[in-house]
Write a structure and sequence with these properties.
By secondary structure, the chain is α+β, with helices and mostly antiparallel strands. The chain is built from four helices and nine strands.
Length: about 200
């Protein structure tokens, strides 16, 4: 019975990720290329024309910042890839907007880079875990989506996949570089398996 529950959980996480990732790609592709020029270079800036347009195309239902929904007793409560007590990446932060389907998205310029973060089932639904339903992406200057963890990812944050996406890591941000493995559908610790097969 536990194995059936785990299999069902992994399938649900996979389905939600594929849907959210597809919506994110479509939203980015439909943005006017001229708007890419509004990608910010001011630390903490999340209100540029680019991000506003992205949220609209991602079908965000309101502009209310929902980051506090991840808090318990005024502290951020999220889990790592191995479902231990974790923490958000301080550069990329957590989602701030809820979409019509209950998923969540956030974006900002911070730590000398533009970021997008998605929560495939939103802050009100478990597990709120890095690499399970929370995934980080970087943006190139041309607005190209770069899953954190890929060889194209060049930022200094979340750089070591053995630290930030592995069942063997105890880092409090373990799971922050799992977006690449989820997109490629490759298990970070065993390339003979799919990402979702080996999800802890």
């Amino acid at each position: 019975m536990p194995s059936l529950i785990a299999k069902h959980y992994r399938k649900v996480m996979e389905t939600k990720f594929k849907k959210s990732y597809s919506i994110l790609q479509q939203a980015l592709y439909s943005i006017d290329p001229n708007i890419y020029a509004t990608l910010s270079s001011s630390a903490g800036d999340a209100d540029t024309e680019f991000f506003t347009d992205l949220y609209n195309k991602y079908n965000v239902v309101n502009d209310k910042n929902v980051r506090d929904l991840y808090k318990r007793n005024n502290l951020i409560v999220i889990k790592t890839y191995t479902k231990k007590s974790g923490d958000m990446n301080q550069c990329a932060q957590l989602p701030t907007r809820i979409a019509y389907d209950g998923s969540a998205i956030g974006g900002m310029y911070n730590c000398s880079g533009n970021w997008i973060v998605i929560d495939t089932n939103g802050p009100k639904q478990a597990p709120n875990a890095l690499g399970h339903d929370i995934f980080y992406f970087s943006l190139s200057e041309e607005g190209k989506l770069i899953p954190v963890g890929s060889s194209e990812y060049t930022h200094w944050e979340m750089k070591q996949n053995s630290t930030y996406c592995s069942k063997n890591s105890d880092n409090i941000r373990n799971g922050a570089s799992c977006a690449y493995f989820a997109v490629a559908n490759i298990c970070p610790d065993d390339s003979s398996k799919t990402y979702w097969e080996c999800l802890p």
